[in-house]
Amino acid sequence: MEKVKIAVAGLGRSGWNIHCHLISQLPEKYEIFAVSDPDEKRRREAKDKFGCKNYEKFEEMIENDDIEVVVVATPSYLHSSYTIQALRKGKNVICEKPMATNLEEADKMIEVAKEEGKILSVFHNRRYEPSFLKVKEVIDSGVLGRIVLIKMMWHSFGRRWDWQTLRKFGGGTLNNTGPHAIDHALQFFGEKEDPEIFCHMEPTLTLGDAEDHIKIIFKGRKSPMVDLEITSCCAYPEENYIVMGTQGGLKGTFKQLRWKYFNPEKLSERKLQTQPTPDRSYNIDEIPWEEEQKWEVGKNLSDYQLNFYIDFYKTIRENKPLKITPEEARRVMWVIDKCHKIAGI
C-alpha cells in the first residue's frame, strides 16, 4: 500500500525522541514528509536525517496538500488550536497528550474532526504498555474474583525546571504524566458509570507553579475503586500495582508482576456463628493459594509504542476502527477537568 505522508509539528522531546523515532522504524508504512519547529537547528537536523520538507511556521506546513497526517507534538497549550487548524486543512491528526488544556477545547476538537470527516486520535501510547495489558488480562480473566481496589503508584523523587512546570504553558504533572495514568485507571474502572472523583494536588519539588504531587480516587457503585498516586516527592517508591480481589490479588512493577488466587470451591464450608469460639481464637482459614510464576516484560520495553503507529496505519489504509478514540481521550480530559475544578486551579 501507499506510504502515509506524515508531518510532525514540534521537534522537542516528544516530537523528535518519540514520534520521529517511532515513525522512522516503519519505513514501509510512513514517510516523514515534513516537519515544523521555530528552531532552525532542529529543522536542519530533521532535513538531514529524513530528507523532509521543513517549515518554521506550522500554518505554512499545513498548507501542503501532500500531507495526509499531522502529528501535533507542540507544548500542551497549543494542542487544541493546532489540531483544529490541521483538521480544517483536511489533515488527519495524531495529537500528543494531554488532548487539550480543558474539556471545552477537547469537545471542539472532536466536533471539528466530525465536521471535516477526518481521523483524530490522541497519543495515549502507554495503552500498549506490556505490564498494563497483563494486569488487565489477569483482572478480566476473573481469577481474582470481584475487584475491590486497584492501587496505582507512579512514584519518583526529583525536581523539574522546564516549561512543563508552569501553568501558563499547560504544564504540571496532571497534564504531563497524568493522562497516561488516568487512561489506565479509566480502563480498569470500566464504562458502566462515570466515576466520582476525589483529587488532591500541590507543588512540592517543582521550580514552577504547577503541581507535581497528585492523589486521585475513582469511586463508583458498580466499579472497583481505583486509587492513583503520581508524585515527584517519594523517596521510597512503592510498587506500581496492588490489586485486591475477593479471590486473590496482584502486585508488581512495570517490569515484573506476580499474582495469586484460589478456587472458592476448595475452601472449607463455613457457617456464620454468634457463639464464642471454643478456644477464644480468631477465625482463621487455610487458603488453598495458587501462585503464578513471576511475569517479566521483555528487554525492548520501548518497542510497545510502535503498536500505536501500526494500528493507526491500519485505520488510515484498511479502515480498521481506531484503537484509541477521541471519545476515550475526552474521558481522560473529563477527569483532568474535574481535578482542576476540585483543586481550584
Topology:
Blueprint: E1 4-9, H1 13-23, E2 30-36, H2 40-50, E3 53-55, H3 58-61, E4 69-72, H4 79-88, E5 92-95, H5 103-116, E6 120-122, H6 130-141, E7 147-155, H7 173-176, H8 178-189, E8 196-202, E9 213-219, E10 225-231, E11 241-245, E12 248-252, E13 256-261, E14 290-291, E15 295-296, H9 306-318, H10 326-343
Parallel strand pairs: 1-2, 1-4, 2-3, 4-5, 5-6, 7-10
Antiparallel strand pairs: 7-11, 8-9, 9-10, 11-12, 12-13, 13-14, 13-15
Question: How is this structure best summarized?
Answer:
The chain has 345 residues and is an alpha/beta fold. The chain has helices at residues 13-23, 40-50, 58-61, 79-88, 103-116, 130-141, 173-176, 178-189, 306-318, 326-343, and strands spanning 4-9, 30-36, 53-55, 69-72, 92-95, 120-122, 147-155, 196-202, 213-219, 225-231, 241-245, 248-252, 256-261, 290-291, 295-296. The strands form 2 sheets. Strands 7, 8, 9, 10, 11, 12, 13, 14 and 15 form a 9-stranded mixed β-sheet that branches.
